[in-house]
Queue: 3 jobs
Job 1
Amino acid sequence: MDNRPIGVFDSGLGGLTAVKQLMSVMPDEDIIYFGDTGRVPYGNRSRETIIQYTRDDIDFLLKHNIKLIIAACGTASSVALPYIKDVGVRIIGVLEPACHAAIERTKNGKIGVIGTAGTIKSDKYAQIITSLEPSAQVFSAACPMFVPIVENGYADTEVARMVASDYLIGLKNQGVDTLILGCTHYPLLEGVISDIMGSGVELISSGREAAQYARKLLAREDLLTDRTAEGRREFYVSDDVESFVQLGGLFLGQKIGKNVHKTKI
């Protein structure tokens, strides 16, 4: 058993949806979250910048003696993690778990992927899916406005529906029956996306699948905590704490409380 915390990072608030899932499947684990709110978004940055930001995030979490790092950021997972090797602890992204889930659940072999411009440009989702299932067809769409829409509190508005309809019409016309939400912000738009895509399309939450995978990994390697009490959660941000607390509760599904600290990286 291992009572060290799990570290989670994201470019901003979206990774809290992954934390929400971790709290559901492993409620007794300690979790330390870092949101790089001072440099969000990552999706429109150069590859070199995304790699450097991701290294900074990992280095910050390593200071907290964690046992596992989850890159709860689709952009960091797709663009940076392939270039970041041994750091002393296991690092998992959100791509592989979501790809495996999509392959298992698709019926017609047509899988859609939505994400930031950086994630879609990397083409990593398509590469992973076709390496696992060569017969699969992958259709992708960048949705650059989704992150600012969510982070500014416009997820359940007509504006969100108009933008989502424009982004998703091509995927819908291709007949995908499974759609990977390749950014951890996107679960807050799940209702809007589902309405547009239709009930016949299953949505795959990258954060949810990563949380499930993390639990299986820790169990397999005998790294789960042996505590039975609810785990401790600490949150760190690189910008304004107050705005993180106010909006972060929407992502986490509950009030964050006072365990939020501003930090430099």
Job 2
Amino acid sequence: MKHSTIATLLLLLVAIRFNVAAQAAEPLLDSIPERPPAPAFELLGPDGTTHSLAALQGKPVIVNFWATWCPPCRAEMPSMQRAWEQLKDDGVLLIAINVGESKADIDAFLADVPVSFPLPMDETMGVSQAWPMKGLPTTFVVDPEGRLVYRAQGEREWDDPKLLDLVRALRQ
């Protein structure tokens, strides 16, 4: 091999190793130090049920924003379902707000990836625009008083015990 090819491969290996180390050091959830009030919402689910943040107050709530066309959103849904199965009897709620899609889109997704937590629809994207996010998936943890405590930008393994412990610690 030429010297430049070997040097390029070594640089690539160093970059990969650095990237893996950086991901491992990445926090599970980003703290929101100001703890601003979470923007209110009232949305219909695909089953016609109304979901509002006000009705969830008094318990920690994981609020996820997602779409069926988003590969990282789809990838994290099974771990969210596993997290929900662990949290639903622990006084922690989980809700995943679909951004900009129809009931038919969500129903088709649920045929492939069944979940039992609420999936309200933000068809006009008015609710998602009120929350401090830059892309999908974005997930927030809201404390029992209705304040934003944590944010996760991008895919997470929601059934990670350390992550779940952070959320459980917010219970009153």
Job 3
Amino acid sequence: MSEMFAIVTGASSGIGLSLAKELASRGYDLVVCSAGPRLAEATAAIRSYGTEVVEFNADLATREGVDAFWNKVVSVGRPVDVACLNAGIGVGGQFWETDLEEELRMVSLNCTGAVQLAKYIIRQMHELNAGKILFTSSIAGEMVAPREAVYAATKAFLLSFAHSLRYELRDTNVTVTALQPGPTNTDFFHRAGMDDTQVGTEGKNQSQPDDVAREGLDALFDGKDHVYSHSLTTKLEGAVANFVPGAVKGAMHEKQAKPQSEK
């Protein structure tokens, strides 16, 4: 058993799986969570690094799912040293055409579930005056994002939430970092219905999830407030985000997110 203990949500694939593997490679025991059948295979991959890994399948878009996951974490009987709140989904398309229930579920998972879980984690960390939290936001949280309007808004919420929590905790030994990846080679765009887009084809190949996870955790352990990851394009977009007019950012995003069949 390691002396270090971490939790990762959305750990069955993509950036979440890479975060869990990276933490395991650094010697952390883990409780990992996701919804669906892929978690068992992911857990086996994480265990190959030689640390203890507990898997827990829960729907973190529901209050009951978050409570069940946190109760599992508490049952391990160890304080959480690192928490990666990564679970999230996307929905692509024009807002007047997209499915309302899918978008409300996205808000429940990306925002509401993150707030609920963060409440439990931070209360524990604050009491112990120790811990590190990584929120997976997105470069989209600083963009004008046509065809991903609600998704980008959820990521802007997480970014603001992370920055505000960090300030509240400034006089403690609890730190908060926001990870802001750009397009990454995961199944995110397929699940968001964006296979037939520039960003969902060649665009996502700008970054690999292992690189994003490594850079995010490096920023976390260095005590940084956020990190743009991983491609040079994402870093440049982040650097100029506050200086580029909204119409220009919107046009850039529209080009990437528009179905290629409409071009």
